[in-house]
Amino acid sequence: MSGLRMSAKVFAIAALLAGIAMVLGSLSSAPAQDAAVLFRNVRIFDGRGSALSAPSSVLVRNGVIEKISTADVTTTAEVINGGGRVLMPGLIDAHWHAMLVRPTPMAALAGDIGYNNLLAASEATATLMRGFTTVRDMGGPSFGLKQAIDEDLVAGPRIYPSGAIITVTSGHGDFRQLSDLPRTIGGMLSRMERIGGSMVADSPDEVRVRAREQLMQGASQVKLTAGGGVASPFSPLDVSTFTEPELRAAVEAADNWGTYVVTHAYTPVAIQRSIAAGVRCIEHGHLMDEASAKLIAEKGIWLSTQPFLDLSGAAALGPAEQDKMRQVVAGTDRVYALVKKYKIKTAFGTDVLFSKALADRQGSMLAALTRWYTPAEALAMATSANAELLSLSGLRNPYPGKLGVVEEGALADLLLVDGNPLDNIALIEDPAKNIVVIMKGGKIYRNSLAH
Question: Is residue 327 part of a domain?
């Protein structure tokens, strides 16, 4: 008798589960809502030009810009009356570290992983609320954060992840201590390697494995450190790290996946060796010489650099690292002069590390480009030009579609600015006040006008 009762319970549970499955199945197969938003009476900065459009209407449907017209558009969509404000593309930061913005160096290396993930999620939301709807992550375990954002569990920017930085023993990104030496080939991984922050590789074969591991996890591009860096304890700025065959191993791995390699490189040797190996984008370049700049231009290589003008945010670094930062800052004016002289394809990024206060000034760093560019040129660099760089990831692009522009068919990552940033780019420095609507993928994340 008890067996019969048990069987009845089993059948009842099975029936219940089947019913739930049918309901969920009907929900998942239901047609998507015709989500539409109409921006009315806006003047458009399209991400490329140097002037605003005439007053226009922009219809967004299902995450894409469906129609742009100077005539009124009749629709049942939600209407946002722009009142003559400026509609522009969402901003893109081409050199970001989503997992390393807020923790201290020690917390990033030895802190609780769960807490660090929550910290990164909070910063991701803050990044989006500053108007940066897309970031290219240049090193760190950001795959899980990206997934959470894409699944709308966390509000944050689109992330183009590199995964772990690939470095050499003593290179930029090797955060081991001397007590961790000697390294046993094939032995235990360091803490930084275990959490996916960086990977040490000291031969072409090791580089190939580590590059493929990042691609396996979903990297849209692969990053190596070809020379010394500021934040790493045993990495002088002047040193060159990977050999050309080692760099080429990563390039071959990325080529096989239809994407590209970037290298962290400040010096002429690091830059020129990277280009010889087939690297398609140089990060930083602040200590480059004339010959390196000319080579970058001739080969059509991208330069993703940053307007480092002071030591703000460097307090988290030790004295030796601050001294290296001074050397980098001293090269900023020269690198932008060379960029303009040789018409180098240039991307904008901020490379914020270990400083929430500096991250809060992300828009100010963009505005600092007006030391060398007009506001329109600076904004174009942070929108359409950065989007062009992102497209190098080919079929590894996690967000197919046009970014960085306001045009029909483009992805609807849009900002409505209270004022004209082409006249006053400083408006971007106070996003809470001046960016009144923030949209990513057709979804509104801020609408101050609704209040």
Answer: yes
